[in-house]
Write a structure and sequence with these properties.
This protein has 199 residues and is an alpha/beta fold. It has one domain: Rossmann fold. The protein is built from six helices and eight strands; from the N terminus they run βαβαβαβαβββαβα. The strands form two sheets. A five-stranded parallel β-sheet has the order 3-2-4-5-6. A three-stranded antiparallel β-sheet has the order 1-8-7. α2 links the parallel β2 and β3. α1 crosses α2. It is globular and about 55 Å long.
Length: 199
């Protein structure tokens, strides 16, 4: 049953058209793709990077490398995650020194994920430049970070969540705005009152 709090802002066709436009914009800025690489941020940045690779190959007849970056260890809130942090494999099997990197993610929000990704990339080398491509920019930045390529700007408030669903991970392509569930008011009274109410 569909969530009545969810609003669909991008369907499969709009996502595909946004990625096609981003691929063309990348090629407009980078006439020579020989030193260009894509790096997807886990989780949904990875299938987006793979789709951009395919679209660029369809336009240029050249397949540029794709890497996978897990940022878990670079997060500035890792101490609050504690033992629940799940590490996934980072796969960057090519040198990044002097390369032009297009970092790919699904949603740009506060900028903290991207800051962590930049820290992670610097452990692999010194690229010539790093640009950012995102499917959705929802605003509310906390750090001076902006995207170079944006599929769609989606105005939101802080009571809303942006959910990107992709076929590779979720079985369908869509972008939803979902209102956060309201927190239930705490029950008044002490433990005895709570026990009585639970009977």
């Amino acid at each position: 049953m569909p969530d009545e709090r969810a609003v669909n802002v991008m369907d499969a066709d709009k996502i595909d058209r946004a990625l096609t436009r981003i691929a063309h914009e990348i090629l407009e800025r980078h006439r020579e793709v020989g030193d260009l690489v894509l790096v997807g941020i886990r989780t949904r940045g990875v299938p987006l990077a793979n789709r951009l690779q395919s679209k660029i190959a369809g336009i240029e007849s050249k397949e540029i490398p794709v890497g996978i970056l897990d940022i878990t260890l670079y997060r500035d809130d890792l101490t609050t995650i504690g033992p629940h942090a799940v590490l996934k494999e980072t796969k960057i099997h090519f040198p990044i020194d002097g390369r032009k990197i297009i970092l790919v993610d699904d949603v740009l929000f506060t900028g903290r994920t991207i800051r962590a990704a930049l820290d992670g990339l610097m452990d692999f080398g010194r690229p010539q430049l790093i640009q950012l491509a995102v499917l959705v920019d929802r605003g509310h930045r906390e750090l001076p970070i902006r995207a170079d390529y944006v599929g769609k700007n989606v105005p939101t408030n802080l009571e809303e969540m942006v959910q990107v669903r992709l076929k590779e991970e979720d079985g369908a392509d869509e972008v939803l705005i979902v209102r956060r569930p309201e927190k239930k008011a705490a029950r008044k009274g002490g433990p005895r009152e709570a026990a009585r109410a639970a009977r």
